[in-house]
Amino acid sequence: MKRIAFLGTWAMLIAVGMPGVSVFGALAQDQDIVGQWRLERIAEQADTPRGGMMSSILSLSRDKDGKLVGQMVGLGGVSEVQDLSFQNGTLKFTQRLQMRDTEFVSQFSGTLKDGKLVGTLTNPRGEVRMEGTRLPVLPDIVGDWEITTTRGQRQMVTVLSVRMDKEGKILATWQPRRGPRVGQETDRQRQGDRPARPERPDRADQADQPQRQFGGMMEVSDVQYKDGVLTFTRRFQGRARQQQDQQAQQPERMMRYTLRAEGDVLTGTVTTPQGDQQPIEGKRVGANAVGTWLLTVSSQRGERAQRLVIRPDLTALYGPMEIDQVAVEDGTISFTMTMGFGDRTFENTFKATLDGDKLTGELTMTTGFDGQPVTQQVTGKKIS
After folding, report:
1. Whole-angstrom Cα distance, residue 36 to residue 309?
2. The domain boundary residue, chosen from 251, 284, 317
3. Residue 189 within a domain
4. 124 and 150 assigned to the same domain
5. Would residue 186 count as lying in a domain?
6. Average pLDDT, consecutive stretches of 10 residues, N- to C-terminus, the chain (384 residues)
7. 3-state secondary structure of 309
């Protein structure tokens, strides 16, 4: 058996479905080494072994016995790291990748410096300086929360969107929309597959009647998040719109919200302008999709393991690739991603059907290396 030190991801093989795994590894530590770390080469070097260097994710956790374990996640899939140790601020590990009759080996050693892990990936063909940065962990409160309340005969459905910016600050926006009357079917339930009816012209006897516009002016301010509790003030000023575009402003109302997220449920209270406290509850949008999925990607060249992490804000990581938005609708998830190899780019579409903690679907490269679409079958199981 040949034994060759390996550096980088064989991007061409990965793209068409051949099992392969990026072998770069490094990480940083703040207080605990456990976490998700993005690994990248510091700079091009003349003695760097040839190979497609790509960003990778080093995932470190502890097993049930408290032992440190790790996985390397690249475009080629997921592999376990070996000889993993972390002592006196120094991380070391070995990764072995078996491809047919050849074993590829790389070794890493790195230490924490200025909040990042700076180290060296070594093999008989050369060395590469590496740097790892910790990926942020989103608090449970982040995400879109659907809140339904009843006012008289009208159900009011609102979406509270909570995000965390690059500096770790929590932001919130309020997106109201009108729901059906209590006991009334929604437009989708009522129409089914029928085409939408054309808009009706204004009736003559309503020409002089004011038309109410739902929503009005709304502002969320004084957003604070501490010890798992989100608080903010919602200012609301409704308006009545006349056909002549005249607006009659209503008095401003202020409500104070105190909310906490536990899993996929949002609970808390809202304090009305009169000082009354009312309970409030919401559910996470896309809860069935959020989590870590272990995937099996199959093609004519074989199978490989891959990882999909869908975050509470419905951004995601497919392998090491950042996904800006995952669409979750009617029991399906979908997203697109663009990969570049040299001067060529390839758009990939992922679409899968959810069934509890399992999914089935396809990963399609719209234009493969031979100019034809390449479709790979995907199955998966949610592991956390």
Report:
1. 11
2. 284
3. no
4. no
5. no
6. 38 35 36 84 55 72 92 88 90 80 84 83 83 92 89 80 94 72 43 41 38 51 95 76 52 88 95 90 95 93 91 95 94 90 80 97 78 88 95
7. strand
Q: Do 337 and 262 fall within a single domain? A: no
> Rounded to an integer, what distance in angstroms lies between the CA atom of residue 234 and that of residue 184?
28
Read off the amino acid at residue 76.
Answer: G
Tokens of 80: 């376990």
Domain that holds residue 233: 143-179+210-284
| Residues 6 or more apart in contact with residue 220 via CB below 8 angstroms | 172, 173, 174, 232, 233, 234, 235
Contacts of 158 (CB under 8 A, 6+ apart): 146, 147, 148, 149, 174, 175, 176, 177
Task: Determine which helix (DSSP H) or strand (DSSP E) holds 12, and give its type and residue range.
Answer: helix 11-15
Instruction: State whether 161 and 214 are in the same domain.
Output: yes
**Integer Cα distance of 336 and 1 in angstroms:** 39
Contacts 24+ apart (CB under 8 A), 89-95: 89/29, 91/26, 91/27, 91/29, 91/33, 91/117, 91/119, 93/25, 95/21, 95/23, 95/25
Whole-angstrom Cα distance, residue 122 to residue 6?
A: 9
| 276 within domain boundaries | yes
280 lies in the same domain as 168:
yes
Give the pLDDT score at 202. 39
Using alpha carbons, select from 89, 108, 97 the residue that is nearest to residue 26. 108
Provide the number of structural domains found in the chain. Answer: 3
Give the CATH number of the domain where residue 298 resides. 2.40.128.380
Q: How far apart are CA 204 and CA 256, in angstroms?
A: 42
State the amino acid at position 94 in one-letter form: T
356: helix, strand or coil = coil
Task: Determine, yes or no, domain membership for 184.
Answer: no
- Residue 15 sits in the same domain as residue 88: yes
Q: Do 354 and 325 belong to one domain? A: yes
Cα–Cα–Cα angle for 177, 178, 182, rounded to 5 degrees: 145
